[in-house]
Please model this.
Amino acid sequence: MALPKGRIFDASLSFLAGCGISLPPDTASTRKLQLDSSDGRYRFILVKAIDVPIYVEYGAADAGICGTDVLRELAPDVHQPLDLKFGRCRMVVAGRGTEDGNARPAPRIATKYPRIAEQFFRQRGKAVEVIPVSGSVELAPALGLAELIVDLVETGNTLRENGLVVVDEIMQCTARLIINRASFHTRQKEISALLDCMERRLS
Model:
């Protein structure tokens, strides 16, 4: 199973522990990228969140935990059987004010999610210039790189501290279990056992 390092990593470990699947105590701080569960039934790989669906789609991992933001951005060919209900946040459009989106005929949008941003504005018939950035998206409006940003928001504190406000909401995001399509059939017994324990945890 591929686990996402970053925003939902600790919550993923907690959820798995609630399913009776525990990892070594030093998992959060280890530099190892492959770990076995305490009972040896599962092997985990620790990868960047954006890479989880790639490892699962191409069969390097049978399953993974991944945010809906990444799934929507990459659109991988994987099964998505369970919403795990944690890691809840919103993907929003934010700027210095509601007028920012009309500052120019094709406003610039800075984001780590270019595909989602393009689709969102295209569906509304608005021409935009999307500028892909990999971090510190909130800096873009302050430095004149872009009028708006598209990013994830949990509490909104980072936006407020950087003088930004939400001007539109794109979608709600949570963590999901994803499964490789071939593994879903070739490892049916193991996958079914994993699904059963997670469904019990969610009920």
